[in-house]
Amino acid sequence: MTTIFLRSLLYNVLFYAWLVALILIALPTFLLPRAALLAVVRFWARSSIWLLRMVCGTSVEYRGVEKIPTGPLIVASKHQSMWETFALTQFFDQPLYILKRELLWIPFFGWYLRKAGMIGIDRASGGKSLLEMVRRARDAVKGGRQLIIFPEGTRTAVDAPPQYKNGVGLIYAGCNAPCIPVALNSGLFWPRRNFMRYPGTLVVEFLDPLPAGLPRDEFNARVSGVIEQASRRLIDAARAEQAQLFGGVPVAPRRRA
Q: What is the CATH number of domain 2-245?
């Protein structure tokens, strides 16, 4: 465990140092079309994932990439970690996120979010912000972007009960675009609110797309059902792998009830 701690510490130092360096390197993109900045973001994602494998021994396997539709799309992903917030960008030419408005105010980082056309919302406004979010997401997706959304609204621990929000169903109904669900087990390797980075095989699985036009209640049930079932399968397989690697000792601890 000492080795894992030291590797995690080294990775975090390198990860944030590289992020700061890229923030400075990317300054000329403010004068260029949005595509230039998004190319830098995808490079950051790929290089950070490479660094994670080299330093921490965390490899990544992507399944079902061939299922990703082209054009306007909703990407509904399980959310266990910060990892998927940047890793998923590498598969889309016009990725879009909905995020807290306050993030847009951070010097440089927030300016890049604005340049990338991300949607900032005021969570304190309640129903008003929800309607604004749906409207802006609808317009962006109809304009050809791929909206990456986390239906649970926030990162959840690996063994926490799922709590899917209604917002993804509202956005789906308004956008009239297909939705691809995404399952993953990232929380075992990059836990939320924890700087530890654990070795093993992190798996992201793109599931069968759901067509546009489903009734909202049916969509909500189907998207949550397939994500949870597939994510549980990936989590169980990863825990079995970790048990083999470390002689049955749990590396990433289970969440207490």
A: 3.40.1130
**Cβ-based neighbours of 143, under 8 Å, separated by 6 or more:** 72
183 and 205 Cβ atoms separated by less than 8 Å: yes
β-pairing, 200-206 vs 179-184, is antiparallel
SS3 144: coil
Question: Number of C-alpha atoms within 13 angstroms, CB side, residue 140?
Answer: 24
Q: What is the pTM of this model?
A: 0.91
Q: What is the spatial distance between Cα 187 and Cα 159, in angstroms, rounded to a whole number?
A: 9
- Cβ atoms within 10 A of the Cβ of 54, count? 12
E strands, 187-238, in order: 200-206
Strand partners, 149: 76
Q: Where are the domains of the chain?
A: 2-245
pLDDT in tens, 239-251: 998 888 776 544 5
- Tell me how far apart the alpha carbons of residues 216 and 169 are, in angstroms, rounded to a whole number: 6
- Return the C-alpha torsion angle 123, 128, 129, 131, nearest 10: 150
β-strand 119-121 against 146-149: which pairing, if any? unpaired
For residues 186 and 202, is the Cβ–Cβ distance under 8 A? yes
